[in-house]
Design goal:
The protein is mainly α. The chain has two domains: 7-45, Arc Repressor Mutant, subunit A, CATH 1.10.10.60; 62-232, no CATH class. Helix content is 72%, strand content 0%. It is built from ten helices and no strands. Mean pLDDT is 78; it is low at 230-247.
């Protein structure tokens, strides 16, 4: 197992690796160049990573972990929001308004995460690694899909979403949309208008799947209690292919 006695060196190597992978592509990047970029000897690289592939997969793991954290935080925040609205005996218009703002906040957070990791995302979704790591795109979609399908089922029960929408099909559509946005973000030189992008996303989804019937406040109360359990049980979505570092 690789030793990680000096976390500062490890972080420097990962930072250098991101630069090298973007500049030269996965195949063109070398362990020697990554080590030089971190101001370390080539041998120091192997104290932290078994190979270039191991280093690349660690970067992908960090991206996945960041997105999963955002989703768990969102689920927890929504549960707290619902408990507050219930305690304040909020009316239906306020429920829909605050839920819509919550969805916008989530979309904005995901878009910002994709921008912050656009170099790694670009390597995955725009062919920077060839087809060798193509399975990671499916894993990225799965990360968006698995937890959110469970959440959509719950929202349908209380009227926030239309009951006639197949959540499995819908969330695949949403995940594919985020992959498309990730491809576009990876090409941009300047950050997009995150507020506008997030508002458009939620507006489209709200008109397409938002529940039109009266909300079931009693069901919302029960759903609020379940939110914590959903947040604490994220899907196990890590690239389970040979070479995954698992660190």
């Amino acid at each position: 197992m690789a030793r990680t006695s000096d976390p500062h060196s490890r972080d420097a190597l990962l930072k250098s690796a991101r630069t090298e992978f973007v500049k030269r592509g996965y195949d063109g990047a070398s362990v020697e160049a990554i080590a030089q970029g971190a101001a370390l000897a080539k041998g120091s690289f192997y104290l932290h990573f078994r190979s270039k592939e191991d280093c690349f997969l660690e970067l992908v793991h960090q991206l996945f972990a960041h997105i999963e954290t955002l989703m768990v935080e969102f689920t927890t925040d929504v549960g707290q929001l619902w408990q507050r609205l219930l305690a304040e005996a909020a009316g239906e218009d306020r429920w829909r308004s605050e839920m819509r703002q919550s969805e916008i906040d989530r979309a904005r957070s995901i878009l910002r995460a994709l921008w912050g990791w656009r170099d790694v995302v670009g390597l995955l979704v725009n062919g920077g690694t060839g087809t060798r790591f193509g399975y990671l795109i499916d894993r990225l979609k799965s990360q968006i899909v698995e937890q959110q399908v469970r959440w959509i089922h719950l929202e349908q029960q209380c009227g926030l979403l239309r009951a006639d929408i197949d959540p499995d099909v819908f969330i695949l559509f949403v995940a594919g949309g985020y992959i498309g946005l990730a491809q576009e973000i990876a090409r941009l030189q300047q950050p997009p208008d995150f507020d506008r992008w997030a508002s458009v996303l939620v507006e489209v989804l709200d008109h397409g799947i938002g529940g039109k019937e009266a909300l079931d406040i009693r069901a919302l109360a029960q759903l609020g209690k379940q939110a914590g359990a959903v947040a604490r049980a994220p899907a196990e979505v890590q690239p389970a292919q040979a070479g995954w570092s698992g660190k």
